[in-house]
Each structure stands twice: as C-alpha cells, then as structure tokens.
Amino acid sequence: MATYQGSGVSALGDATRRAIFELLADGPRPVGELARELPVNRPAVSQHIKVLREAGLVIDRRIGTKCLFKLDTEGVISLRAYFSAIGTDY
After folding, report:
1. Cα 16 from chain centroid?
2. How far, in Å, CA of 90 to CA of 57, rounded?
3. What is the 3 state secondary structure string of 5-59?
4. What is the distance between the alpha carbons of residues 90 and 9, in angstroms, rounded to a whole number?
5. In terms of Cα–Cα distance, which of 78, 73, 67, 46 is closest to 17?
6. Could you tell me the CA-to-CA distances from 24 to 32, 39, 52, 59, 89 in Å, in that order?
7. In a 3-state reduction of DSSP, which class is residue 88?
8. Angle at which helices 42-54 and 15-24 pack, to 10 degrees?
C-alpha cells in the first residue's frame, strides 16, 4: 500500500498535475476543457492525466464519444489517509 500512496504523492509533485487534480475536484471534465484552463496544450494535459491515472488518482468514464476524467474516490481516500497518518507526529 505504501507504494500506491507514494506514487500519488509523487504524481502531485508537479504543479500542472496538482492543477488538474484541483480542477477535477469540482467534477468530471474532458481533456479539452482542462486544457483551456491551463497554460499547456491538450497532448500535455493527456500526458499528465496518464500519470495521475497510473498513480490511482484519476479514472475515466466514456459518455458517448466523449471521455470524461474524474478523481478516483478510492485513490483520494488513500492519499488523505496517508497524509493524516504522517501528519499526526508534527
């Protein structure tokens, strides 16, 4: 489990991925919509989403021809638990 949490923390170490993570906290969005709100192009957003998916923080859902990305609840819960556990000693 520590590897999974560590990859989530590492994935959020990049400012663009954190911004995507925060945008997705407001609800599911397609890549194009995310790209319009960020200073990077669609292919770059797709690459960042790939990292977030591999870290278990984002999942996708197809609705017709559109692919929406959203936060993976289980990944967010795991990340929150990780930070809660390490934050109790400070």
Report:
1. 10
2. 26
3. HHHHHHHCCCHHHHHHHHHHCCCCECHHHHHHCCCCCHHHHHHHHHHHHHCCCEE
4. 18
5. 46
6. 13, 16, 11, 10, 30
7. coil
8. 80
The DSSP symbol for 72 reads -
- Fill in the DSSP letter of residue 64: T
The predicted-structure confidence for 35-81, as pLDDT tens digits, reads as follows 999 999 999 999 999 999 999 999 999 989 999 999 999 999 998 88
Q: Which two tokens stand for residue 5?
A: 């949490």
Residues β-bridged to residue 61: 68
Q: Is the pLDDT of residue 1 over 70?
A: no
CB 69 within 8 A of CB 60: yes
Residue 8's alpha-carbon distances to 1, 24, 85, in angstroms, are 11, 15, 15
